[in-house]
Amino acid sequence: MKLTAYLRSVAAKFFHRSQTRDEMEEELRSHIQHRADDLERSGLRRAEAERRARIEFGGHERFKEESQEAMGGNGIETFVQDVRFTLRVLRKSPGFTVAAVVTLALGIGANAVVFGVLNALILRPLNVPQAESLWGTSYGNGADKHRLPILSQLLRFARS
Amino acid sequence: MSGQAQLLPGTLDLLILKAVSLGPLHGYGILLRIGQISDRALLIEQGALYPALFRLVRQGLLKATWGTSDNNRRAKFYELTALGRKRLQEETDGWNRLATAIASALSARSEEV
């Protein structure tokens, strides 16, 4: 089935992604260990050497992100990250969020109303010649109802 | 530090290809090799190396395999592919042409103009 095949490919992609990420983590760790080995040989204690190596390596997170991008586009992941970031920022400033939501709501509402009126009046008038001479009819009320066939009633109406 | 040159954009890739062409190396080894062959004139920020490495692997210029380093640690070793060797040659030629042209332009004297 097509859907299951698709889901499987998405899952495989995610799995592969986390695998390459683990591999990258391991590689960066290995780098820091090698650097620490060198520092240790120059006379530092192991703990201090490792600390120094980590500091020297610098913005771990930044390079990780850059590396992931270099390894191959990650559309879904970036999108999820962006959405999370958005929500976090919005939660941090509720005043701004409320103002933005209200502005959007009023704006969309007003637009919908104006468009609705214009659409009915100007953009899509009734599709008949002389639409203004068109009348609506309804027949009978109370006891009168359904006594005459529609056609005769219409004829009578036309004569009057 | 004086005596150290700023890396021009694009030169990091070339230096990596060159360092690896002298024998398979892991990431940290590549940094050491670049420092060594440039007489410590070119130092590269440690973390900046990896995005470049992954990019080169993705372009098919480098090949990576896990192995054991001299320090008896697991490490990922990089080596040139055939495509990488070709690219290194091209980039080296291009760089030499550019460097010669710039050098001759900068050494021009007023009486030669």
Radius of gyration of chain A: 36 Å
Please identify the oligomeric state.
heterodimer
Question: How many strands, which pairing sense, and closed or not: the largest β-sheet of chain B?
Answer: 3 strands, antiparallel
In CATH, the homologous superfamily of chain B goes by the name Winged helix-like DNA-binding domain superfamily/Winged helix DNA-binding domain
Euclidean distance between termini CA atoms of chain B: 37 Å
Morphology of chain A: elongated
Residues in helices of chain A, as a percent range? over 70%
Taken as a percent bin, the fraction of beta residues of chain A is under 5%
- Name the CATH class of chain B: Mainly Alpha
Q: Return the average pLDDT of chain B rounded to an integer.
A: 86
- Give start-end ranges of low-pLDDT stretches of chain B: none
Average the pLDDT over all residues of chain A and give the rounded result: 79
Structural class determined from secondary elements of chain A = mainly alpha
- Give the helix level of chain B as a range of percent: 40-55%
Distance between the termini of chain A: 68 Å
Number of domains of chain A: 2
Please give the count of helices of chain B.
4
* CATH hierarchy: architecture of chain B: Orthogonal Bundle
Fraction of residues in β-strands of chain B: 5-15%
Short description:
The complex is a heterodimer of chains A (160) and B (113). Chain A has 160 residues and is mainly alpha-helical.
